Write the structure tokens for this entry.
Amino acid sequence: MKFGILINEGPYQHQASDSAYLFTKAAIEKGHEIFRVFFYNDGVNNGTRLAVPPQDDRNITVRWSELAQQHNIDMVICIAAAQRRGLLDEGEAKRQGKDANNIAPGFRISGLGQLIEAGIQCDRLVVFGD
Amino acid sequence: MSMLHTVNKSPFERNALDSCIKHALPGSAILLIEDGVYAAIKGTAHEGMVRDSMANHSLYVLGPDLLARGMSPEQVIDGISVVDYGGFVDLAVNHDKVQSWL
């Protein structure tokens, strides 16, 4: 079955991203396809590669990046939510005249249309938020 | 097929579970996750509401979230099934849609 995942909350402030990660992992282990993980609102903060959580804690961003790489998952960050929160890829940094980008491997920035598409294409869209 | 509802709020914090129970069609499944797991515990002020809802809905609770909050499956109201993340996935598969009560 094809799953879409929507995450509305940032890492380390709410359990949403952890729950979504463990659900996604379990779905993959059961042989399901993850069509897309969409990060919206504060959820975009899951995609910064500049966060340095303590070494004895889980690294939520790295964990997502690794899962996406291992299973070829499309992880999309909402562009409007990302711009408000200072999350940029190389192209956006250049376009906005910023001196750096901070997007983590495996994430890409795109629009809400990608969420709508996931809603249409997937058999189930599961929402994790506050 | 019926709908799967997930509730992630403690009934002591918000009325999400109460709203969910009132809106869910008979035959729906309700899965308690995150702080929602507090509703699954025996002997709380909300036990009556949860027990009554089981006449119309099947109730589930996410085991890992229970354990993370220092509670065990033995404390769960009889008739509520304890599931793991794989069970959560199966519930999503076996129901038409998933509605998160955020």
Observations:
- Chain B touches chain A through 18 residues (CB under 8 Å).
- The longest helix of chain B spans residues 85-94.
- The longest strand of chain B covers residues 58-62.
